[in-house]
Amino acid sequence: MFELLFKYSPWAYRAGELSFASPWPLWALVALVVVGLAFFAFTLYRQRKLAWWRKLIIGTLQTLLLATVLVMLWQPVLLVERVRDRENVVAVVMDASPAWLTAKARNPGCRSPWPHFRAGRWMPCANLSA
Description:
mainly alpha; two-stranded antiparallel sheet; 5 helices; 4 strands
């Protein structure tokens, strides 16, 4: 469930470091959230008809929404220094088909059994070193 919600395994979050890819400094993010909090508090203070607990709930939700939007604009990234063992695998395929073996027997200098376009015409087997 964790990987479904957060895209990476808990191991990546334990081994990695959460950072921001934005060129803006982190203190600017905090300052904008504080300015937004002050603005929301001022506008809600002027609302005389609301009870204090409703003002608190509305102000909290507005500030959380502003903080969430600003964090997304700061582009959070997860920095992981190393990968898990045996997670990255490279597959190697070797061609031992009869077509390859026949072409090699016909022309030992040939590197490929497939025709190549050389000097304006198709050649059955091109020596790629020439």
